[in-house]
Write a structure and sequence with these properties.
The chain is an alpha+beta fold. The protein is built from nine helices and 18 strands. It has helices at about 15-30, 95-110, 125-130, 130-140, 155-165, 240-245, 260-275, 305-310, 315-320; strands at about 10, 35, 45-50, 60-65, 70, 75-80, 120, 150, 170, 180, 185-190, 190-195, 210, 220-225, 230-235, 250-255, 280-285, 290-295.
Length: about 325
């Protein structure tokens, strides 16, 4: 198979705007695309892969019932928040979780073992890159300013931190995700301001992630795709949005900004440290024009940035996934 005919695998949920935009850009470049959700394996998606001692890697077939591709022909994988494998209801409950883990591991690890395949991003690297406490350490080593932070379940330590900072504090989750409320509904645990005078023994109930509040002229969702970096700005017009813009989209004004050279250099070092090529970075820009790193989501959303600003982020994804044509 010629390099130009080798397909890109898009592994994402069916309703995913970012995946749709990347597929469109690859189609414009006449790059073959095979798209599926990992949740369709093993009930709708068929996988057969073998490895012989003389072969450099696994060979075999992926078949979704409409299209078939050979594993050895895959040029790149865009792993975009797919669902987990779905096991048939006929599998008894004591074995269903085991079967799901087997299916998840088989699909991901076989794809990860393919030689010479480009990834955005390899999930094995994503898992490590998503750890917020380590991110602050890496960001500092890469030359980025970060907020003074404390993770604790000790009320006395929290009070001492508040006294040391002597400025407003926020509390945020150590781990992202949503809190199940009831059937079909989930609650996002947002960043919120805290009053140190109210710190009590409830802090002992779990780990709490406290940070100093950073004064903001505006915020930046910085999207990096390989060497290309895009700065989308968020100017918030309510206190709620200023604290966590995800809680009040009606009070956000969007725009773009050039990314300073020293931030570009640090972001690229950060990505290289983790062995990833994509990141959705959150920065605050202070009234003194200093960029302060909050966190990076290695599987973060970006379709809204392109839709609001016109920044060519999907095209950057397609360019990387396409790779060389020879």
């Amino acid at each position: 198979m010629t390099a130009a005919a080798r397909p890109v695998l898009i592994v994402a949920e069916q309703l995913d705007a970012a995946a749709d935009m990347v597929v469109d850009q690859l189609n414009r470049r006449d790059v073959p695309v095979i798209r599926f959700d990992a949740a369709t394996f093993p009930q709708q998606l068929t996988l057969s892969a073998g490895h012989a001692s003389a072969e450099p890697g696994w060979t075999g077939v992926l078949d979704d019932g409409r299209r078939t591709t050979r594993l050895e022909d895959v040029r790149a994988v865009y792993w975009r928040r797919p669902g987990r494998s779905t096991i048939a209801d006929t599998v008894p409950k004591p074995y269903a979780a085991w079967a799901q883990n087997q299916a998840d591991a088989a699909l991901l690890n076989l794809l990860a073992a393919l030689p010479g395949v480009r990834w955005i991003n390899n999930p094995h690297h994503d898992r490590i890159a998503a750890h917020k406490p380590q991110q602050l350490t890496v960001a500092t080593r890469c030359g980025l300013r970060v907020p003074r932070s404390l993770i604790t379940n000790d009320p006395a330590a929290a009070r001492a931190f508040a006294k040391q900072v002597d400025a407003p504090l926020i509390c945020k989750p150590v781990l992202g995700g949503r809190l199940p409320v009831d059937e079909g509904r989930a609650l996002m645990v947002a960043t919120h301001h805290v009053n140190p005078e109210e710190f009590d023994d409830s802090i002992r109930s779990t780990a709490h992630y406290f940070q100093e509040t950073i004064g903001k002229a505006y915020e930046v969702r910085l999207v990096a795709v390989d060497d290309q970096v895009f700065g989308g700005t968020l100017h918030t017009t309510s206190e709620q949005a200023c604290t966590d813009w995800r809680t009040d989209y009606e009070h956000i004004e969007y725009g773009t900004t050039p990314v300073p050279d020293h931030i570009l250099h640090s972001v690229r070092r950060f990505l290289a440290y983790y062995g990833i090529v994509f990141g959705a970075f959150d920065f605050a820009v202070t009234p003194d024009d200093e960029w302060v790193f909050f966190e990076n989501n290695p599987a973060g959303t970006w379709a809204w940035v392109e839709n609001r600003t016109g920044l060519p982020i999907a095209a950057a994804h397609a360019e990387y996934l396409q790779g060389g044509t020879e």
